[in-house]
Structure prediction request, 249 residues.
Amino acid sequence: MDNKIVSTTYAPLMPPYQIIKYGKQVGMQIGTLIATTQIKGDERHPFKIETHSYPVVTYRNKATASKNEHLFEKYFMEGVVWDRIELNEVSTICMSDSHLPWQEFIDMLWSDIWRSGYQSEPSVNLFHKLAEFGVQIDTIPPGIHEVHIQTYCGDEKETMVRTSRDDIMALNVLFTENDQQMADSISSQIMSYTMSFALSHNRPEYKWKLKFTTDEYILKPLVELLNHPKKKRVMGSIQIYAVQPYEDE
Prediction:
């Protein structure tokens, strides 16, 4: 007997909702689509089924949407089925009504790097995305923060330069013999933080400064460049969703 779909069931969820992530996809799970499949049994159990659960998400939280402005250019897409990703494959970032201390946000970035691959850049844009879902995140405390630059090598051969997990920022760049190139890459990641703050209408970049330090001799020239940059920091990039034209009828 060939496998066939017996039924599909949609199970709506109740708030607070989970903010979930898989790869670069981030959504607020508002329901679950359950597909039940009849499979071939045996003499003892002639009837068998297997189930697959797929998250149903929205890309904005309509409960936090402004009632005083149009939503034409907002990216809601409520009711999207992640039909290639099952529930047991996603990571849960937090709940839709969460209020995260800053260091919890940083710890989450490191957990995401651990799952994505140790060479991955921190997904700093999650600060802005979580704000769109209504999640509150405490910003960087004011003052001078010391960050520790160190080398790290995982199971693969490439060596990374990164901050300590307990530092105020998660920074992770590929090690090269070009100190200026590494300094530019680190500066670009720092700018990604400040740009995310600006997009979320929060500008704590004027209240804090970073002081870089290292215990590794090979990284001392890099630390010197970071503490005394020879050129302006590189501006981070912003992802913009383009509004597609209507198709001809």
